[in-house]
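Quick one:
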Amino acid sequence: MIDPKIGETIYDPAAGTAGFLVAAYDHIRLQNSSADGVEEAEVDGKPLKRGVGDRLSDKQIATLRNATFYGNDVDPNMVRLATMNLTLRGLGNVHILRRNVLTETFDAEKKAALGLPLEGFDVILANPPFSGRLDADRIVDSVKVGATTQTELLFLAYMLSALKEGGRCGVIVPEGVLFGSTGAHKELRRRLIETNQVEAVLSLPAGVFQPYSGVKTAALILRKGGRTERVLFLDCQADGYKLDAQHDTPIDADDLPALVETFQARADAWMRWQDRDPDAAWNERWWFATAADLRAHDLSLSAAKYKPHLRVAADHRPPAEILAELKELNAEIAAEMEALELELAELRA
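Output:
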């Protein structure tokens, strides 16, 4: 969906083991491979195409190895694992820094000394930590959003500042970020919508990050600068794996390929959405909201807010679909209550 390309700078500010950077590297190689340079392998029980990048020139390969990938992490063990992961793929010159971007800022001189792009990054891919908190006096001014100390909000503010104008970002966020009612949540969404382009929100099924986290999440796809005119909401109910405590058993049900195709052809999807009959049932797993719709709902980016209501008898809907919708609404209510409790705690402090 982000489609990183050769010649772009790609950054993960919370790199972990560098999984997103490796995925971006594999994507670029696949996009620059001939038919004979592509093979299909099985990864985690699913077929996956991999390319050798045989259409890349020596200069482009040098660019990939030396001036494309950047990252950091606060955990020294993660830094070592990320470095090893990249080195095993021929990217030994990529430097993963040990750094907390929320508490440490670099000036132009420091960036130049470290070989970092001075004007910002073309692409940011990240899955930053959820539900963390920082001491207010440690947070650097450039990432502050109101008085919040919640890391999921601060990371998103940082990523906006780290992108170059026109740069693209794909980030995993807890769904509470999309509809939270605190002042910080609303301010961050205002920045996202009024001074940037939110292109899509991909709602992921609960448990997609099991066994590590059961938090309901979404992927936010945005472009720096401009103004949001409309948002494409994509509703993923199945990701190709059984949604149990381990989330490692392959199944046939997988909404992601079709949703990715919809995003890639979103101009055509928008025309179809405009031409639809508002009184007819809408059975697709995607829909749009305009800027006016967003303003009417307090700039909420929750997919459930804008989901077209089916004008059919309730007993015609599959029970599993109704249950999933109720779970999503309950999760939204619980997240808002938690956010209010946190805001009250901050006010008391």
